[in-house]
Every structure is written in C-alpha cells, then in structure tokens.
Write a structure and sequence with these properties.
Largest sheet of chain B: none
Order of helices and strands of chain A: EHEEEEHE
Largest interface: A-B, 21 and 25 residues
Shape of chain A: flat
Helix content of chain B: 55-70%
Number of helices of chain B: 22
Structural class of chain B: mainly alpha
Oligomer: heterodimer
Number of strands of chain B: 0
Order of helices and strands of chain B: HHHHHHHHHHHHHHHHHHHHHH
Distance between the termini of chain A: 16 Å
Largest sheet of chain A: 4 strands, antiparallel
Strand content of chain A: 25-35%
Structural class of chain A: alpha+beta
Chain lengths: 115, 435
C-alpha cells in the first residue's frame, strides 16, 4: 500500500495559573530522553516535525477576527505531519508520542487526501 | 538520523550553573527572578530542541535565553535604574555568551561562590541543605522531599528560611579569595558531608535516588578541592571519604535491594578505580597538622577498602581511627563503633569492656543500634539471656524491613562474626549529630 501523509493536531487544556508544578529540570531530562527515543523509533514516519501554533486570526468574507481561542476548552498546541500506510499506523505513531502524555492532552490524526 | 546526546544531567546541572552565574551578575537578592528565568529558559530549550535538534552550543543557548529573560524582567521592576546602573558593565554587555564567560574556570567559581553563599551561619543547616539541592543541584521541590524523606511543605518552609535570609541580607561575597571565604570553609565542608551522608547512610530502599545525592556531593566537593580555596587537608579528606564509601556502595545491597552484611558483600564488586582515587585524595590530605573528623572517617573507610577479607581487616587501625574520631568529634555513636571494632580485634569481651559503665543517652539507648550491638556482643560472650533480651529490643525497633532482615541474619547467628551491624547501621546516626 502506498504511504499517505497524515496531519496530527495536538490539543491540550489551557494552562490554569497556579495549578500543578512546573516540570523540574530532572523531569525535563526525562521528557527530553523520551521524546528523542520516540523520534528515533518513528523517524521513518515523521515527515515534518511541524511546530507550535501561537496566536492567530480567523479570516472570513466579513474580515479577520481573533479566533475563538479564548473561550475554547482546548487549545491547539501544535501540529506535525507523519507518513503511514494506514490510519491505524499513523494513530500508533501519535499514540506513542510524548504529545499525548500530559493529562488532558490529545492528538487528532487526519489523513491528508491528495488526488 | 541519530540524535546528538546531551551530557548526562544536562538540565539539572545547567540549572545550577545558570542560577550561580546569573545571581553573581545581578545579586542574590534577585534569586527568585533568576530561578524563574532559568526555569523558563530550560523549558524553551526542551521545546525547541525536541523539535529542531540541538544547537551547536546548548549551554550558550540556554544562557542567552535565560539572560535576556532575566534582564527583561528586571527592567520592568521599579528599581530598574539602580540595578541596570550597578550591573551595566557586566550584565547588559554580555548578551552573547562569549568565550570569556564560557571559561570553565569562571563557571566553576560561580558555582563555588553560590555554595559559600548558602553556608551562612544564620541559616539552619537543614535549610542550607535544601537550598543547595535546589539551586546548585537543580532538584525540584518534590524530588528534594522524596530524597530527604520529608514533606513538600517542609521543603518549602526550609527553602523559604534560606531565601528570606539571603533576600534581607544579601552576602557581599566578591572574588573567591580571602578571609571571608576561608572562614566559611568548615561550613561548606559540613554541608557537603551532610549531603553525602543523606545519600549514603539513609535507610531508604531506593538505591538510585540515594546514589544521586552522593554523586552530587562528590561533584561539588571535587570542584571545591580543585580550587585554590579548597586545597586544604579537611576538604581533601572529605573527598577521599566520599570516594572510599561510594566505591563499596553497589556491594551493599543484594539484587532485591536488601542490605548486605559486610562479610556477605562480594568484595570483587567494589570499585577498585574509585578506591584508588579515594586513596590518592587521602594521601594528599595527610599534610599539615590539622586532623579532622573527615580524616578519621576516611581512614576507617580506607582500612575496609584495603582489607582483602573481613578477617584480614587491620582492626587495630580501625580502632585507632575510631578513638581519634571520638576525640575530634565526640559522640556516643563513635564509642559504640569503637566497641564493635575492638570486639573484632580483641574479642567480644574486650568490646563489651569499652562500653562498661557507659550510660548511653536516651536517644541511643532506645535505638535498635544500641540493642543490636549489645545483643551481638553478649551472644558471642555466651550470655544467652541478655543477648535474647537485646535481640528482641533490636528487632522491635528496627525502622525498616531491610534492616530487620539484616538484624535477623546477624543476630540469629546465621552469620558467625559480623561487624557490619555497626558499619552500615550505627553510622546512620552520624548525621544525628550534624543536623
């Protein structure tokens, strides 16, 4: 089966001030190691590591407005593109990614259909 | 694609380095702003580096980010004018992490300066310890609580005490020379010793986390001993002591984490290379006429490291060292240890004779250590009845299961002669007279 690209959209709950401790340097070491292990394991699948998504606007025929980011229960944190033979395989890559480990985080996986 | 690796404990140690470097630039009174800036720079590094790989010089990268963050924060504060004026030549002109501030020597000096800063007589030792673990070793609050077997609230409280003292009376410690620093050296040695013993002597079963405390103590002590300030016999003996203990650490536990008696330990597991390093530091420390408790303790550790077997241990030398230790650092624990060593040397009756007429303080009399040693000596003298009484008391008051099992093996008579009940157990209380 030919490989197809999948868009992975990472979502998380907006940070609530004062809730939970920031990760300690030792925890950062652990996160860094886990992330790199994951990246190495799935290097064949990762097309584009993507990046973080910051502030933006929604553009419509009426003009551009600030997006509904403020009221949203979840914020889109980042994206990446992976290639896989099936949706299941792409889901597996996403499921193992450190992006879903934080409580309240999720990754949405969508096939990018190209004619 | 292979991912380039960061040096081990990069984030934790970089935290300590950056906090030390930046607080020297802006003053310890701004410590909290410094710590915030460093924390956030490391977070940014984590995000950026996992996405796009490591920069050429990771240390320079985080320094620049933390530095800019901190300057931005301080600029916003009301007293900005004063701070900026005061530190303009240093702080503002170094947005680039140039070769001059990357010099290992300067980073080392900054770390040491921070160590001296935290050894302020007005700060209780337990607060100094927590402060050092946080700012110099980069441990988080929860990690410190876990390692010191205390609550997070308690860690916050101790940390707060140190911080508020430093905020109100920021030390004016300039260059690392002179009287100011020399007078704090004993306190610095002591905090390193406490840090080490927290790791080495704790009865906690989790080996890895104890080992980390020892490694941190050795890292800092080595930095100190390499510096002209630390080239004194006490510091060298302290470093020797640490190496000689850690060399035997792996052998102290069996595969399931249970404690092993000295005679049960596989001596081939002892780290010969480390023993060698320890002995070299011990040789260097043997100069001048100062004899410290570190010398005595390193001497005892060296005797154990050098003995090919328990039977061939030069007990007379161990006894001598304990006697010297009692003299420089009087403690009933040291007396108890000496009694055990004498028993190995000249027999159990001679060991009991050391304790003859000695009234232990209540904290010792009620402890399993006292009971265990007496049970052992009486059993070997054939005083079955008294041995049984002490044995029951010892088993009842052993604080952890690992220790209970150790005592059962020891006092149950399965092992014939054993010194380790005192070596690993009695020494636990060394920290009792420090903290």
């Amino acid at each position: 089966m030919p490989k197809q690209n999948y868009l992975c959209i990472q979502r998380s709950q907006p940070k609530q001030p004062g809730k939970g401790q920031a990760p300690s340097p030792a925890q950062m070491e652990e996160m860094y190691a886990k992330f790199n292990a994951w990246k190495e394991k799935f290097q064949e699948n990762i097309v584009d590591m993507g990046g973080k998504l910051g502030a933006g606007k929604i553009v419509t025929a009426e003009g551009a407005t600030d997006g509904p980011f403020v009221e949203a229960k979840e914020v889109i944190g980042g994206y990446m593109i992976v290639s896989a033979e099936s949706l299941e395989e792409a889901v597996e890559v996403a499921r193992k990614s450190p992006g879903v480990w934080m409580p309240g985080s999720s990754v949405e996986v969508r096939v990018i259909s190209t004619p | 694609m292979t991912t380039p690796k960061l040096v081990e404990h990069f984030f934790r140690h970089e935290y300590g380095r950056l906090v030390a470097m930046l607080s020297r630039r802006v003053g310890v009174q701004h410590l909290e702003a410094v710590e915030d800036a460093v924390q956030s720079a490391l977070m940014k590094a984590l995000e950026a580096w996992t996405m796009s790989g490591l920069p050429d010089n990771p240390s320079a990268w985080v320094f620049r980010v933390a530095h800019n963050d901190l300057m931005g924060e301080l600029r916003q504060r009301t007293n900005r004018g004063r701070i900026l004026e005061q530190y303009a030549h240093e702080a503002i002109d170094t947005p680039e992490y140039g070769a001059e501030c990357l010099m290992a020597g300067e980073v080392r000096d900054d770390l040491l300066r921070m160590l001296f800063v935290c050894c302020d007589k007005a700060i209780p030792v337990e607060s100094q310890l927590v402060f050092a673990l946080k700012t110099l070793c980069g441990f988080g609050i929860r990690e410190i609580a876990l390692r010191l077997f205390t609550s997070e609230a308690n860690v916050y409280k101790r940390l707060g005490r140190a911080r508020s003292r430093l905020r109100k009376h920021p030390p004016r410690l300039g260059e690392l020379t002179g009287e100011q620093h020399s007078s704090r050296l004993p306190a610095v040695n002591k905090i390193l010793y406490v840090l080490f013993t927290e790791g080495y002597l704790s009865s906690h079963a989790e080996m890895a986390i104890r080992r980390e405390l020892c490694d941190e103590a050795i890292r800092l002590a080595a930095i100190l001993a390499e510096h002209p300030l630390g080239q004194v016999p006490e510091t060298q003996a302290l470093l020797a002591l640490m190496h000689l203990h850690v060399a035997r650490m792996t052998a102290r536990q069996d595969a399931s984490g249970g404690l092993l008696l000295l005679e049960e330990q596989d001596r081939t597991l002892w780290d010969r290379q480390r023993i060698q390093v320890g002995l070299e530091w011990l040789a260097r420390s043997a100069q001048g006429d100062g004899f410290s408790r570190y010398h005595a303790e390193a001497g005892i550790a060296a005797e154990h490291c050098l003995a090919p077997s328990l039977q061939e241990t030069r007990w007379e030398r161990v006894v001598d060292c304990y006697a010297l230790l009692e003299r420089v650092a009087p403690s009933p624990i040291h007396k108890l240890n000496r009694a055990v060593a004498v028993a190995e040397w000249q027999g159990p009756a001679a060991g009991l004779a050391v304790l003859e007429g000695f009234e232990p303080p209540t904290w010792l009399a009620g402890s399993y250590l006292w009971a265990a040693v007496l049970a052992d000596l009486h059993r070997r003298c054939g005083n079955g009845h008294r041995a049984k009484r002490y044995q029951d008391a010892a088993l009842k008051s052993a604080p952890t299961q690992a220790q209970q099992e150790l005592l059962q093996r020891r006092l149950g008579g399965l092992a014939r002669t054993q010194h380790d009940v005192s070596k690993t157990q009695v020494r636990k209380y060394h920290k009792g007279d420090l903290t």
